[in-house]
User: Which sequence fits this backbone?
């Protein structure tokens, strides 16, 4: 057992550190909130270095990094508070398009450059107002216009994350009978791939649920109305589609549910057993450095304000420090086991642990800011009228977002599902039937 | 970066695992607990023959040449088997203090007896007023000719009843809570003026209150330098935290696995209670607490082997906090899910819970180590 990186890995650390200092120096943090130029410069540097999508296949811009190198890259960026290149587009949309290029006759390849060079944002429209859970039907429809051969999208998506920075959207819809037939062909292939993963959720796939389609929508297209939420800091919003016309290439040959399953597996996956999508063996969930950075920021704030003498706050900080030490140890363990013969630790543990810490950080931030946790730090308000004391410094703006972060973690409400999966995969406990829940 | 064990470490782990499985049933353990000594002398000699008592000592000292990770591997298995033999008191604490602070002469005199199983020992460091503060030492050692005279009271000396000698902390200078001025001495328990009151602890181990009343020791009994004993003491205690923490990890593994098996068998309302989601999630939480603790255990072991210093101390305190919280959670839930049976003498569950409860307090509780973690 040894905790140190190898000589080559240490050299790689140095290379990454030098890159970060050059393109995201500490003073750049001060511009984080307003400094869109600085962020763009950073992204351009990352793209120029060829590191924007390290986990993609080489022919699509990947780097062939080892899992440890990928971990180093992510953790160093997080520690420096550098803007993440791990987006919905680079993590989920790109790999999906790459995998299905052959199926779709490659029309979707036109979307890849914008993802690869980090210039275009994507979001995911799934939730609907009248559709609070999966037991009800989706109302967004896609119908065929027999005269033009095009498709017509109508409906509304709520609670869309990342809406303010997206140009494209993946949209779930209720398909026509013809589209369902088309999907079934692809479903069979999905199930065959999923069977290798040996997860309970896959064996139940499409047995008793309505199937949904997935299409790509240009958010600037006629008929698309984007309504950012009033709580704009969370970047949630509503998107309304009124007779939006789509070509056939906009319809993806994968079901919406299969895509959601892929996302769950991809974000949870780290072991060599995962064969879904591209190079996911690199995709070890790394969050401890970012959360550690947030804790350090809050701690600095508390010390500056002189609140550190408060025993409760001090204890909360120390407890979170220990929680983060645990998460860091878990991440390193998962990373080290990714290519060993030891049965890998389930990365679901990482996800549950990280979510809990995120929520605790939000609570700590509220506790430490006192009354100044109350104002809604709307970006426009900040720009127009300046910050509210004591958040006169940019770092506090970042820390203020932890409240939102904590809430987002809670709204995810994935813990139950993750624990169901752990009960089955790690403890050999059968799936609970609905009457036992 | 490598979290896998070496071949030697794997062999050590497997040999102890086999011993626990084949030769250390819960009934056998309970018989040993009920014996006069409170442990099995036969088992102790087996440990010596298998080299386990020398795992943490250098080859020059007659040991196995292992470090913190080897001790961790061993103690985790001991925790799984709820081993009652005094590995902690004799080998990790007393042996550790001599290993870290003692002269070659002192090591040559005392360590071979520990390693070959012929000598039992204990570390007498705690005092009634000190709570968890190692530096709070009211016991005094006054220079007297070529030697020292020790006076004072040491509390809850683990393995005190069986110890042939004790390593005791005493103040040779400074104020009662100064780290400087503490000296460690090796004292034969038959020395005139040393008296003991023995008792069992909640978790069925044995301990003593030891009184030093004008106990005379020679200068050659000093461990290291006069007045500079705190560093060796702190190092030995941190080794002890890693050891009991690893033991707790083993205990937790046993508890969550036993609980899962029990819930698969136990039926209520016409089906196994393990089918209920709320209980499944409780068991998942137990499993997660175990894995989280185990991950920190690895980090703490590796940090100590990298070099003992603030980084290692911080990792140790984080580990102790985690063990305190996780141990309580896993122990309590194992008892709850077993129902009333969980606390019966016949079932091992309650005994594991008692051990975890004691470990939470041993060497400083959660609050103590949270503060230490924050201060490092």
Assistant:
């Amino acid at each position: 057992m040894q905790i140190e990186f190898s000589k080559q890995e240490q050299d790689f650390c140095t290379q990454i550190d030098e890159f970060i200092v050059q393109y995201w120096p500490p003073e750049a943090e001060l511009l984080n909130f307003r400094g869109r130029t600085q962020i763009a410069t950073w992204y351009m540097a990352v793209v120029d270095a060829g590191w924007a999508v390290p986990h993609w296949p080489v022919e699509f811009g990947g780097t062939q990094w080892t899992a440890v190198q990928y971990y180093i890259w992510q953790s160093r960026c997080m520690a420096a508070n550098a803007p993440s290149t791990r987006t919905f587009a680079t993590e989920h949309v790109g790999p999906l398009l790459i995998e299905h290029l052959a199926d779709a006759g490659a029309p979707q390849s036109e979307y890849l450059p914008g993802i690869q060079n980090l210039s275009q944002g994507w979001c995911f429209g799934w939730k609907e107002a009248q559709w609070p859970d999966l037991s009800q039907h989706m109302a967004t429809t896609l119908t065929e216009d027999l005269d033009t051969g095009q498709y017509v999208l109508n409906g509304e998506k709520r609670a869309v994350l990342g809406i303010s920075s997206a140009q494209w959207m993946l949209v779930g819809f209720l398909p026509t009978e013809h589209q369902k037939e088309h999907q079934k062909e692809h479903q069979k292939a999905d199930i065959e791939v999923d069977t290798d993963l040996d997860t309970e959720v896959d064996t139940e796939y499409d047995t008793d649920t309505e199937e949904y389609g997935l299409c790509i929508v240009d958010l600037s297209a006629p008929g698309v109305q984007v309504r950012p939420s009033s709580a704009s800091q969370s970047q949630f919003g509503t998107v309304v589609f009124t007779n939006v016309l789509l070509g056939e290439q906009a319809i993806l040959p994968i079901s919406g549910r299969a895509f959601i399953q892929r996302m769950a597996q991809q974000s949870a996956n780290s072991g060599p057993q995962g064969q879904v999508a591209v190079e996911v063996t690199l995709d070890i969930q790394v969050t401890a450095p970012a959360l550690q950075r947030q804790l350090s920021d809050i701690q600095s704030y508390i010390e500056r304000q002189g609140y550190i003498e408060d025993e409760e706050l001090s204890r909360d900080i120390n407890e979170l420090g220990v929680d983060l030490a645990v998460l860091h140890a878990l991440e390193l363990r998962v990373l080290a086991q990714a290519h060993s013969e030891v049965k890998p630790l389930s990365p679901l543990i990482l996800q549950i642990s990280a979510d809990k810490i995120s929520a605790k950080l939000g609570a700590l931030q509220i506790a430490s800011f006192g009354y100044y946790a109350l104002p809604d730090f709307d970006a426009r308000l900040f720009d127009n009228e300046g910050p509210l004391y004591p958040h006169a410094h940019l770092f506090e703006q970042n820390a203020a977002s932890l409240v939102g972060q904590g809430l987002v973690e809670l709204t995810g409400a994935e813990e139950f599902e993750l624990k169901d999966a752990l009960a089955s995969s790690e403890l050999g406990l059968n799936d609970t039937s609905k009457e036992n829940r | 970066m490598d979290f896998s064990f070496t071949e030697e470490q794997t062999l050590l782990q497997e040999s102890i695992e086999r011993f626990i499985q084949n030769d250390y049933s819960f009934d056998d353990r309970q018989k040993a607990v009920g014996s006069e000594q409170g442990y099995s002398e036969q088992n102790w000699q087996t440990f010596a023959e298998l080299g386990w008592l020398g795992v943490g000592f250098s080859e020059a000292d007659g040991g196995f040449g292992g470090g913190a990770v080897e001790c961790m591997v061993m103690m985790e298995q001991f925790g799984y088997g709820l081993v009652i033999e005094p590995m902690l008191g004799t080998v990790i604490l007393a042996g550790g203090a001599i290993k870290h602070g003692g002269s070659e002469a002192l090591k040559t005199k005392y360590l071979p007896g520990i390693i070959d199983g012929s000598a039992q020992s204990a570390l007498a460091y705690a005092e009634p007023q000190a709570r968890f503060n190692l530096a709070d030492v009211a016991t005094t050692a006054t220079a007297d000719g070529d030697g020292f005279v020790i006076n004072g009271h040491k509390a809850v000396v683990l393995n005190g009843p069986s110890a042939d000698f004790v390593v005791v902390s005493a103040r040779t200078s400074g104020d009662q809570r100064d780290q400087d001025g503490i000296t460690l001495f090796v004292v034969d328990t038959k020395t005139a003026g040393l008296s003991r009151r023995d008792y069992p602890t909640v978790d069925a181990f044995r301990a003593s209150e030891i009184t030093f009343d004008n106990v005379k020791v020679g200068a050659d009994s000093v461990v290291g330098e006069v007045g500079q004993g705190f560093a060796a003491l702190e190092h030995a205690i941190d080794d002890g935290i890693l050891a009991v923490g690893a033991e707790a990890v083993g205990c937790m593994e046993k508890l969550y696995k036993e609980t899962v098996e029990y819930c698969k068998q136990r039926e209520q309302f016409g089906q196994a209670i393990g089918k209920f989601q709320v209980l499944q999630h409780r068991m998942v939480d137990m499993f997660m607490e175990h894995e989280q603790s185990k991950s920190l255990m690895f980090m703490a072991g590796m940090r100590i082997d990298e070099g003992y210093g603030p980084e290692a101390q911080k990792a140790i305190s984080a580990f102790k906090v985690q063990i305190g919280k996780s141990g309580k959670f896993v122990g309590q839930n194992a008892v709850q899910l077993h129902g009333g049976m969980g606390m019966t003498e016949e079932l091992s569950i309650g005994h594991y819970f008692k051990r975890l409860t004691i470990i939470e307090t041993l060497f400083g509780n959660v609050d103590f180590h949270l503060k230490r973690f924050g201060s490092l």
